[in-house]
Each structure stands twice: as C-alpha cells, then as structure tokens.
Amino acid sequence: MQPSGQSDHASFLVSSILDCYHQISRLKDLHPSPNTNEIFSRLVTLCCRTVDADVVTKVLTYPEIVEISDSLRQLCSTAEYLLEAHWAERILCTDTEVHANEQLRDFPYYKNYVDLIRMETNAIAMVNPDRSLHKFAILGSGPLPLSAFCLRNSLMGNDVKVTNVDRDSLAIATSSEMSLKLGYNPDQVCFQCVDVQEQTIEFAGFDVVCLASLVGSTSFYKKSIIRNVVGRMKPGALLLLRSSHSLRSLLYPVSLDDASFWRQKLSRYLH
C-alpha cells in the first residue's frame, strides 16, 4: 500500500502540471512575455523536482497526464524555440562584442548550459582519458546555440571546432550571424543547414557528435536518427545523446532506456 504522503505529493504534482498545461493552452501564442515566462518557469520547476520513483510513475501514468503528454512536449518545444529566437535577436541588436556577450550571459538558462557542458566534458574525459578531441558537431543547435558557445569556451584550444547543424534555415542564419557578433570566427564555431538524416553531412570528420534533446520527437524516430548518424561516424568517435528522465520527460522527448538497443555501446549514463 502506497504511503499517503506519496499519494498526496503525486496528486499535487498532477494537479499543478495540468493547471500549467491548461494555462499554456489558453495563451494566444507562445512568444516570451511576463505571463508566458512565469507559467513555463513554474512548469519547469515542477518537472525538475527530485521525487521518489513511485511518485514519478504515479504522475506519468495518471490518465489525464498521459492524454496531454505529447501535446505538452510540443508546446514546450515551440516555446523553447521562440524563447531562444527572442534572445538571439536581442543579442544581434547589441552594438559591441562586449555587450553581446553580456546579453548572452543574461539568458535565463545560461548557467544551466555552463553546468551541463562541464558535466558532459568531464564525462567525455573519463571515457577517453588519453585522447585529444578537437572536432565536435551539435545536431539540432537551434537559433541560440549555447551548447556550442559554452563548449568552445570550456575547451579553449585553438584547434577545437564546433559545427552546429540544424534543418531550420532561419535558426542557422540567425545563430551564424550572432556567433560572429559574439566574437567567434568560423574556424571556431561554424554552421550547416541540413537535415541530419541526409547524406550530405560528413559525420566521419567529427570526434564527438551531440544529439540535442529535441531531435527526434518519438523514441522510434530518435532511434532511426541514431542508427543513421552512428553508421556514418568514424570508429572510436563518441555519440553524446541528450534526453530526459523522470518528470522531465513531460518537457522533452522520451529517453532511450532500452538496453537491447545499445548492445553494450553505452559508455556512460548521466543525469
């Protein structure tokens, strides 16, 4: 029998998440605004809580949550794109490189990216302690490629190059212009507008390929992309796969916990 405390906690989370969802659904659009930002901030806070596995299961299997999950993820994806595009435009409107970088650091989730890149680079170093890695690709970089900027800042080597890949031509045009505004040259951070499933991109040239959380809206599609990309990477290269777990799976596409899919190729799992 489940303790009443867990049951009450699950009920609170279900009610709060559904309330956020219904408020978001009633918005005229998802462009950043004080009201929109507040609702999404509340939703993110709820879904990033550390809760017991039994509570997570109860919340994620609650019928109304199951019913709205796909729609909620799509709303979150759209809102994240619009938020990044909004901040990219703010950065482009600055008059100096210093002001541009100050504006970048003011992005609400900037520190989250700094912490994420630190964790990922540490994990890469543990997996490959004796090998220098120079060429990185980020698939699904979006209009505000913070991963690329934070990665380049973290590694700092003159021979480190980060390639951003996205199928959205507007996102690539905006982010490539912004990159120059921030002081990065094309030998440090570059951009390609292409669908990752197409054969025109040469994955064999990269030491590490990072697949963003929003690439692949379903487990089936994400697996298809992974097979396609891995099959074109050079031997010994690393695939860095970002995904979601626990209640965060309501914000981003589902994680890949299917052990049979990886067949011993999974070097490290972090969250």
What's the number of helices? 10
Q: What spatial order of strands do you see in the largest sheet? A: 3-2-1-4-5
What structural class do helix, strand and pairing data support?
A: alpha/beta
Helix content: 40-55%
End-to-end Cα distance: 29 Å
What global shape is seen? globular
List the secondary-structure elements in sequence, H or E. Answer: HHHHHHEHEHEEHEH
Report Rg: 19 Å
Strand content: 5-15%
Can you describe what's shown?
- With 271 residues, the protein is of the alpha/beta class.
- The chain has helices spanning 4-25, 34-47, 53-60, 63-92, 97-105, 110-127, 146-155, 169-181, 219-230, 259-262; strands spanning 135-139, 161-166, 189-193, 208-211, 238-241.
- Strands 3-2-1-4-5 form a five-stranded parallel sheet, with helices on one face.
- Strand 2, helix 8 (169-181) and strand 3 (189-193) form a beta-alpha-beta unit.
- Helix 1 (4-25) crosses helix 4 (63-92).
- The longest helix has 30 residues, at 63-92.
- It starts with a helix and ends in a 9-residue tail after the last helix.
- 31% of the residues are buried.
- The model has no long low-confidence stretch (mean pLDDT 88).
Short description:
This protein is of the alpha/beta class and 271 residues long.
Tag the structure with descriptive keywords.
five-stranded parallel sheet, single chain, alpha/beta, 5 strands, 271 residues, 9% strand
Which helices and strands, and how do they pair?
Elements: H1 4-25, H2 34-47, H3 53-60, H4 63-92, H5 97-105, H6 110-127, E1 135-139, H7 146-155, E2 161-166, H8 169-181, E3 189-193, E4 208-211, H9 219-230, E5 238-241, H10 259-262
Parallel strand pairs: 1-2, 1-4, 2-3, 4-5
Helix pairs in contact: 1-2, 1-3, 1-4, 4-5, 4-8, 6-7
